[in-house]
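Human:
Take a look at this sequence-structure pair and walk me through the tokens.
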Amino acid sequence: MVLERSVKKEKLAACQLEYSIRLNEANDAGMEIRGLMVIKQTKKTRARQRKQAITNWKTIGRKVIHTVERLGVDYAQELLHSYNCLIDEPAGAVILRRDTVFPPPTRSMVS
């Protein structure tokens, strides 16, 4: 909760005075220095952040494995380690971008 935006100025000053501590004695001008503890809250707990990081790693791992299965090790390595362009062969000048849609893999079911 952000007090500065949700509370009137008078009530904010009263809350800050109530929850702050005095850091030194009053000086000649009659002003005292006070410290206010600020509690920062995040929307995600550490457990949720950890779970999300694990989920992201698993998702990326599945994508890498799927890419290797579809395209082969050498081709997938070029794809995964390049930023924008996959390969530029002089013979065919094949350039694949990240938004390129690959055809589904063809697998023969042997029983």
